[in-house]
Amino acid sequence: MTSIRIDGRDCLTRTGINLLQACLEAGANLPYFCWHPELGSVGACRQCAIKQFSGPDDTKGRIVMACMTPVSENTIISTDDPEARDFRASIIEWMMVNHPHDCPVCEEGGECHLQDMTVMTGHNPRRYRFTKRTHRNQDLGPFVKHEMNRCIACYRCVRFYRDYAGGDDLAAFASHDNVYFGRAADGTLENAFSGNLVEICPTGVFTDKPFSTTYTRKWDMRGAPSICVHCAVGCNTIVNAREETLRRVLNRYNTDINRYVLCDRGRFGHGFVNAPTRIGTPLRTIGGQQVSVPITDALQAFARMAADGPIVGIASARATLETCFSLYALVGPQHFCTGQTRHEQECVELVHALLTRHPGALPTLHEMESADAVLVLGEDACATAPRLGLSLRQSVRQASFHMADGAKVPRWMDAAVRTLGAECPSTLHVLTPAPTNLDSVAAEAFRAAPDDIARLGFAIAHEIDPAAPPVTDLTPDDAARATRIAHTLMAARKPLVVSGMQYGSPALLQAASSIAAALARATPEAGLSLVLPECNSMGLAMMGGLSLETVMEQARAGAISTLVIVENDLTRHLPPADVAELVAAVPDIVMIDHTATPLCQQASLVLPVAAFSECSGTLVSQDSRAQRFFQAVFPTAPIQAGWRWVQALAQHLDPSMLHISGLTGWRDLDDVLAALAVAFPPLAPAVMAAPGADYRMNGQKLRSQTYRASGRTVIRSFVNVHDQPPPGSPDTPFSSSMEGAYGPDMPATLVPGYQAPAWNSVQALNRFQHEIGGDMRDGASGLRLLSRAGNQNADPPPYAYVNDIPAPYAARTDTVLVLPDTRLFGSEELSMFSPPVMARAPAPTLGLPADMVTSGRMVLHLEDGPHVLPVKPVPGLPAGIALCPAHMVARALRFPCMARLDRAPDGGEGS
Amino acid sequence: MRGEYHLACARLHHAIGEARQQGWLGKNILGSGFSFDIHVHSSAGRYICGEETALLTALEGRRATPRSKPPFPQTGGLWGAPSVVNNVETLCNLPHIITNGPEWFADLGLGEDGGTKIYGVSGRVTRPGAWELPIGTPLRQIIEDHAGGMIPGYQLRALLPGGASTAFLDGTALDVAMDYGSVEKAGSRLGTGMAIILDDRTCPIGMIRNLEHFFAQESCGWCTPCRDGLPWVERLLDAIEDGTGQDEDMDQLGRHARMLGAPGRTFCAHAPGAMAPLASGLKLFAADFAAHIQQRRCPQQSGA
Ligand code: SF4
Ligand code: SF4
Ligand code: SF4
Ligand code: FES
Question: In this protein, which residues make up the domain named NADH-ubiquinone oxidoreductase 51kDa subunit iron-sulphur binding (chain B) (predicted)?
Fold first, then answer.
């Protein structure tokens, strides 16, 4: 820390930051555009101009760009200096030369950084009296709208898209005042993080296209802190709602996880909530017809079913802890199934076990960004955990930061650091069967079959720690590769090993953790990260339960009378024959879900459950972080949270049948969590993931609407002009209206949106942070259930390495090894009900090694029958392997899967 | 080399080819064990590529925008590697310095600075051209002896001593010695040493408009004041020259000259350079500006 003088006021400031950050952290309102906390400084916009004085006697001073000037001891600056003010006002006037001033029809309006900064500079008259330059807009695909005339050429978009996210189809074109930010030609923005342009661009050039179709003024929406449900990373989001419909999802800053960036699946996947596939009322099957019935009918029907015999509950890795636990409380451990196959469940539980006993660190995404050597072992993280993939992409910049430190260039001097690091060797090794998006920044991208990758992994572990079992019969090439990678990892200060469940290979998981454990003996910071498939996979792993195979056995034995399935599409886990057998063997199936999945057709009773935006609940991310999401939408009855449905069912049973009889008396989420803590002590800290419903700030509930929300009575005026009491949720400390407390000091977990005096765009976030880019002012968001610290033990006990090293992979001639081709868009369940994501999902193709592509279309004989698919050659794919789009061709794929492959009868056309 | 300079480029390639044939370039030069080569890169033609860091960025195949320093090219230049950027004019001096020694070279200068300089004169002179002369040669000598003086019938009104991005000097400055210090003392810059002459029958505002059109076009588009300020200046000058100027336009021109002219406000020296002829022209030709606005036309255009 040091002290600098800002406008005559001495301010304690961090060293190593720039003056813009220092001013903002000191509470000054200094306008800026091109600087972004995650992207650093480049000095393009010249908006942050201030006066710097060389000493107390310097009265003249000179104009400098605050974002380009480091804090140094005894810095004396003025933001208020008339010359600096005048210059900043001029900058706005220049930006406005070609700007259309179309705020009233602009979708950025009301949360526009340009509006805020314009007001902040105090610039009013626009004296440019000539014709404005205009641009042609482009169609950039289903996610992002383009209105180039609003561009102020701050270059943030291209810096984010190209330099940060690795995209190459958005660029700055032309020059002088004709610079153009777009694609070479109209077309879909391909990068997985394109949606962030909406927040990164300080004006209305890039806006949220799906939101546009149900557009509403930003200040008229209710906000709630939420958690993304589209993978197990657990990115934090803000959901916005109006007229009790979910309108959009925004990034919510979590210093450890997503920080400023969400993936497009997370940002645009929410469309399932308003899709036609939503279930709105209870449905009963009467005489082969599904009919909508009142809630009382539905529950009485359930009571009659329950009287017939045992109830088994099937939970889901995409349901909340509370919902899964309520089902557990209803049926008890003998009848509680996790809704996963035995293999899936074993893998998830293995991940939990490996993370628990990992002697090194369990890094957060943000910590992964500073890993100085990374090994990705058999997981395409860019598809299975996109935000994590982006963090790994950042990790390759470590070497350039070290060079910058050496050259005394501050790390936030973005262009300079990138220049210095242009030729820095990267330290990322990607070992996967198929190409990944990280290959382009990897020192080495090596293709092999999962078993061979696992073998390499075990060999690397043995190189690092001879106590780890050796691998016999490695090819000389692989042995050399193992040695090389082992040495890179051992030379690192913060090495990281990433693997996951994509290929359903326990050997890969074991190999990855062996390497990380071996490293941790010498380097306590050695990190391990394992990717799980769904948003609550980890929470469910910590609860445990029966596998689907066990349920099948019970069903076959006639031991199940009623099956209660909560938020689970079994057809994604079990092949059709098994599903059919289950349906036939169980007299009654009760489906509790928000979306009409295939099995709903066969259920005796379907109950409409609240989606994530319509209730509150807790999810445990893959790195064991319990996080709470909150209700933004108050759905029409009888749609309600999963646990409330289960409770309603319980209330229609004889209390003696309940495993935890307290279930019927739970009033709110806090009651559920209290009971959960008793039943599952390892999950007890989940209670503290966020303040309870009784939390008050200054004695008040928290408001979830902005202070200028309008039209409360108008919106219902066609019904009634009287003010209605706003709806309330017993589960949260939020009021659903604009009444209540709000401010930058509110708990990080409870921020429903960012707004501060003079700051109405997402950049108001600066005011909610203790340090810009650092922690929030009040607390972290969520709570890690597993210890994240590196190994503190000076002399760790020997690590119990497993010796389950698979045999070398051998391609077969009669069958192919089918591996899931997990896609950013197309593989994840819920986002595929969202129209813009559906539009981005590529048609299914079969990936094959080039020499196996003998015709344009081929037939893959899977468990559920033959599939005729167009084929595409996949460079580097090992012999005898076929890549089949996960969940798109066969909805369920058993691991490992061998299948016959034939030429399509109609031969070569297609492709 | 600028892409449009086809002829120069072809000649350069030819000369380098000859050198290579002689064994003066390439691997193991003249059996010395020393290897050296020259690569001519002809890039998209942009004025800004003359800025040393923008030149490096362009060489890397990226948009020719200048870079912030540090790192200076000497430590982190082309692809992050240490790089030396020099003008061909500078490099041409080396063989002579090596052959004849630094003393000899320094003694060539007439004043404080040493060596020679390539001077040039364009405008309505009898023999426009470029000449290598001792540095410090007086301006009058360059114009009268080498460029042959003004074309009969034209009077010298003012000039830009060092090219487009230097400030105007009027006819009283003809005796200035063309070295760095003297030109600066006279109120301008030596710049490239390529003087541009304004004669009495050319409209000074037309000339400035032409210059600002060039600078606005050649702005790389990186920083706001330059990208959006220069086109505004150009439009204002267009309006004044075309007879639609307003009194407030003079305030706007003055404001731009002030705001863009001071160093450190724009990312690089392009905009301050562009403002040099404007700021000096506003003072020197104040009466012409006023006449244009009052008469709602260019007096010289309709007079000529
Ligand atoms: S980008 Fe901002 S300033 Fe421009 S029209 Fe839209 S709301 Fe207004
Ligand atoms: S499009 Fe937006 S982010 Fe990109 S340069 Fe223009 S204003 Fe900046
Ligand atoms: S990475 Fe996962 S959690 Fe994060 S936004 Fe994308 S889908 Fe959601
Ligand atoms: S924010 Fe400092 S120059 Fe753009």
Answer: 205-250
Q: B230–A422: do the CB atoms touch at under 8 Å? A: no
Q: Is the ipTM of this complex over 0.90?
A: yes
Question: Which pLDDT value is given to residue A790?
Answer: 47
pLDDT score of A612 more than 90: yes
pLDDT band, residue A907 (cuts 50/70/90): low
Ligand 1 centroid, distance to A22 Cα (angstroms): 27
pLDDT digits (tens, 9 = 90+) for A220-265: 999 999 999 999 999 999 999 999 999 999 999 999 999 999 999 9
Task: State the pLDDT at residue B69.
Answer: 85
Using CA atoms, how far apart are residues A319 and A536, in angstroms rounded to an integer? 7
pLDDT band at residue A445 using 50, 70 and 90 as cut-offs? very high
Within 10 A of A420 (CB to CB), how many other CB atoms are there?
26
Tokens of A382: 């860019």
Domain coordinates in residue numbering, chain A = 2-95, 130-273, 283-308+315-338+544-689, 346-355+363-537, 816-903
Residues A512/A457, Cβ–Cβ less than 8 Å:
yes
Choose, out of B43, B49, B68, B215, the residue to mutate when testing the contact with A (most A CBs < 10 Å): B68
B232 with A46: Cβ contact below 8 A: no
Element housing A508 (H / E): helix A506-522
The answer to whether the CB of A46 is under 6 A from ligand 4 is: yes
Cα–Cα dist A115/A194, whole Å: 23
Q: Tell which one of A144, A156, A206 to mutate to probe ligand 2, the residue whose CB is within 8 A of the most ligand atoms.
A: A156
**Closest CA–CA distance from residue A95 to any residue of chain B (Å):** 7
Q: What is the CATH number of domain B204-295?
A: 1.20.1440.230
CATH, domain A283-308+315-338+544-689, list 3.40.50.10840, 3.20.20.140, 3.40.605.10, 3.40.50.740: 3.40.50.740
Ligand 3 nearest-atom number relative to CA A267: 5
User: Is B71 in contact with A420 (Cβ distance < 8 A)?
Assistant: yes
Cβ-proximal residues to A163 (8 Å cutoff; 6+ apart), any chain: A39, A414, A418
Q: Does domain B116-199 have CATH number 3.10.20.600?
A: yes
- The percent of residues in chain A predicted with pLDDT above 90, rounded, is 91
Q: Which of A179, A419, A424 sits opposite B67 (nearest CB)?
A: A419
Q: Thinking of the domain A346-355+363-537, which architecture would CATH place it in? A: 3-Layer(aba) Sandwich (3.40)
Kindly report the nearest CA distance between residue A33 and chain B, in angstroms: 11
pLDDT tens digit sequence for B126-135: 999 999 999 9
Contacts of A62 in chain B (CB under 8 A): 264
Q: What DSSP element (H or E) covers A432?
A: strand A428-432
Bond before B70 cis per omega within 30 degrees: yes
Q: Is residue A152 within 6 Å of ligand 2 at its C-beta? A: yes
Please tell me the distance from the alpha carbon of residue A132 to that of residue A148, in angstroms, as a whole number. Answer: 13
